[in-house]
Amino acid sequence: MADIQLYHFPASPPCRSVRMTAKALGVPIELKHLDFMNKEHLSPEFLQINPDHIVPTIIDGDFTLWESRAIMRYLVGKYGGEDNSLYPRDLQKRAEVDRLLDYDLGVFYRAMLETLMLPVRTRNTPTKEQQEQVAKAFDRIDTLLKDKKFLTGDNITIADFAMVVGFGAEFLFQRDMSSYPSAMAWYKRMQELPYYQEVNQQFFDYVEKLKKLSGQAS
Ligand SMILES: N[C@@H](CCC(=O)N[C@@H](CS)C(=O)NCC(=O)O)C(=O)O
Predict the structure, then answer these.
(1) Annotated catalytic residue: which of 12, 17, 68, 85?
(2) What is the C-alpha separation between 38 and 43, in angstroms, rounded?
(3) 12-68 pLDDT, tens per residue?
(4) How far, in Å, CA of 111 to CA of 52, rounded?
(5) How far apart are CA 147 and CA 202, in angstroms?
(6) Ligand 1 atom closest to residue 18's alpha carbon, by position in its atom list
(7) Which of 141, 162, 138, 153 is nearest to 20 (CA)?
(8) Cα angle at 206 between 144 and 149, to 5 degrees?
(9) Is 12 a catalytic residue?
(10) What phi and psi values does residue 57 have, to the nearest 5 degrees?
(11) Mean pLDDT, to the nearest integer, of 87-109?
């Protein structure tokens, strides 16, 4: 039996970044699916586990943790051995990963969520200003990836897992993504990971389902 239980919703971006981290580490996790459509995350049972009622949430024995970036750090710390390039011990390398995780939490993911993902459900049209913010965020990622395989260099890190789940909403952006060639090459590299499809496909299926439900063409 797996040590770690992960409460998740398959389409959820932060849940997918945690699942990719576990896959990269080769750590089996027991998935506990919460049906968000039926508000299972608000059930008394789950509220007792996590009063913030958010996923991803992990349980490791008598320890409970939520917030995807904290979970990814915890998994590498626990299963990554002495030093692991997913979240390196070297102070400056680690600081670069942390900088991106902070940028993702405060700026990048928020822009992708509010401007690209949520409107699929709400049918609100993003403002011009929001769209410019997204364009600027893609541009920043593109610049960052010039001459790099992954966001901080030659090795994949948890920052790549955190950011690719937001970046994956690029198909909802009504602009030409060929303006971001380095970012798109990185995205393709991420999509080629052996576990990418298994972990991420349900997001794309979910968006299609929401579009159909709200009468938007795919
Ligand atoms: N900053 C959190 C965000 C988690 C989050 O917002 N999860 C959503 C699903 S994608 C959720 O559980 N929402 C339920 C709620 O807010 O009640 C993380 O990275 O883990």
Answers:
(1) 12
(2) 9
(3) 999 999 999 999 999 999 999 999 989 999 999 999 999 999 999 999 999 999 999
(4) 22
(5) 31
(6) 20
(7) 162
(8) 20
(9) yes
(10) -135, 130
(11) 98
Question: Taking CB atoms and a 6 Å cutoff, what residues make up the pocket around ligand 1?
Answer: 9, 12-14, 41, 53-56, 67-68
Q: What domains sit in the chain, N to C, each tagged with a CATH number?
A: 4-79 (3.40.30.10), 91-213 (1.20.1050.10)
**Closest atom of ligand 1 relative to the 105 alpha carbon:** 1
Name the residue with the closest Cα to ligand 1, atom 10: 12
CA–centroid distance, residue 125 to ligand 1 (Å):
22
Q: How confident is the model at residue 137 (pLDDT cuts 50, 70, 90)?
A: very high
Instruction: Report the C-alpha gap between 113 and 121 in whole angstroms.
Output: 11
> Do residues 15 and 206 touch, judged by C-beta distance below 8 A?
no
State which of 36, 43, 55 you would mutate to test the pocket of ligand 1, scoring each by most atoms of that ligand within 8 A of its C-beta: 55
pLDDT given at position 217: 61
pLDDT of residue 214: 79
Instruction: List the residue whose alpha carbon is closest to atom 12 of ligand 1.
Output: 54
Whole-angstrom Cα distance, residue 22 to residue 61?
17
pLDDT beyond 80 at 138: yes
Contacts of 168 (CB under 8 A, 6+ apart): 13, 187, 200, 203, 204
Distance from the CA of 53 to the center of ligand 1, in angstroms?
8
